[in-house]
Each structure stands twice: as C-alpha cells, then as structure tokens.
Amino acid sequence: MNSPVFQLLVLAGIALFLIIRLRNVLGTRDGYEPPREVNTPTARPGPALEVIEGGPDNDILDHAEDGSAIANALMDMKKVDASFSVNEFLQGARGAYEMILMGFEKGELSEIKPFLSEDVYDAFASVVDAREEQGLTVEGEFVGVREMSLHDATFDPATNEGEVSVRFVGELTHVVRDRAGEIVEGDERQVKRQKDVWTFARVMGSNDPNWQLVATSE
C-alpha cells in the first residue's frame, strides 16, 4: 500500500477514536438545555443588633464622674429634655462667655440683656452706671478662653429647672481711661487672665432654648 495513503488512513482512525471518546465524556446537547443549578450556600442571618438602654452616656461621663451628684443632675435634665447635650451646652457657654463678658466690659448691656437674669443684669448695670458717673470708660479685646470645665450641676424636679456652672479662664486686654483719656487701670499691651465661675439656668423641656446667666463668682 502506498505510504501516504496508509498514513492518511491511520490519522483518520485516530480522529474517529478521539471523537467517540469525547462524545462519551461530554455527552451531546440537543436543542435548549436549561443551565445547571449551582448550589450556593445560603447566608445565615446574623444576630439582630439591639440598642441597649441604660448604657454609659459619654456625653455626661466626659465631664462628670459616674454616679456623682453632677452626673445624676445632668441625667435628670436629659430625662426631661431629650435634646439636651452637655457638649453642645459647653460650646454655647464658651460663646456666651465672650459675648457677655465683653458686653459688660464695654458697658453695652442692651445686646446681652436677654441672656441675663434680672439680678445679674441689675448688678452689671450698677457697675456700668458707676463708671459713667466717674467718667470712666473701658477698652478691651477678648483674646480667648484658655481653660473651661464643668464645675457643678443641679436639677429641681419640682420646677424642672436645671442649673449648670462652668469654670472659665479667659484672656483679654483691659484698660480703664478717665475723662481725659488717661489710663488709670490696666495696660493695653498686657494680656489679663480672668477666672470666673458662671452659673447658667433654664427650665428643661420648655419652648425657650436659651440659658440665662443667673450667678457669677470667682
């Protein structure tokens, strides 16, 4: 037999053998065959997250010792007024300190009167009136609050009135001049450090969100 013809027959036999083996292994598909279902593991639902009530309130504990009278008073305020936040109160107190202090220094009480109790306003007004009678004027610039901390807190359940005392260490320039414009107190080039403890009060849960300054001390 011719050698090329023989080689062709051998190759054809091998090809036929491979086709038969592939059909046995892979099978045949006639028409539409639905895709095989893939078994994917079903995700197990995790445990439901629950908010545990009665946990530590860092808004309070960042400023008062747990179980202290101050912490308990702040907690009572929150029970009456859920919107009350110690951190937000202190931020507001910082701004109020600058506004009220400089209003008093410059004798401009009309703008700060809504934030003062009647007793504090009368005390401030008497000092301002005495200055004017003596022909004294005060010049000052607020530098900033060097230190600030929660000093005390009380709550009256009978009236829902809360009082919070804040200790401030402020820095400002302070100069008092007479009628002639001469400096009689202070130094305009020197920064004065002033220490105050201010007490703010508010009826918790009331429609009026403003706190009033009800007492000042050193």
Radius of gyration: 41 Å
Strand/helix succession:
HHHHHEEEE
How widely separated are the two ends?
Answer: 124 Å
Helix share bin: 25-40%
Number of domains: 1
Mean pLDDT: 83
Spans where pLDDT lies below 50 across 5 or more residues: 2-6, 15-38, 40-44, 46-52
Instruction: Determine the strand fraction and express it as a percent band.
Output: 25-35%
Number of helices: 5
How many beta-strand elements? 4
Order of adjacent strands in the largest pleated sheet: 1-2-3-4
CATH architecture level-2 label: Roll
Q: Could you please say which CATH topology applies here?
A: Nuclear Transport Factor 2, Chain: A
**Shape, principal axes of CA atoms:** elongated
Explained architecture:
This protein is an alpha+beta fold and 218 residues long. It has one domain (61-217): Roll (Nuclear Transport Factor 2, Chain: A). The chain is 35% helix and 29% strand. It has helices at residues 3-26, 58-61, 69-80, 86-105, 118-134, and strands at residues 137-156, 161-177, 183-203, 212-217. It has a 4-stranded antiparallel sheet with strand order 1-2-3-4. Strand 1 and strand 2 (161-177) form a beta hairpin.
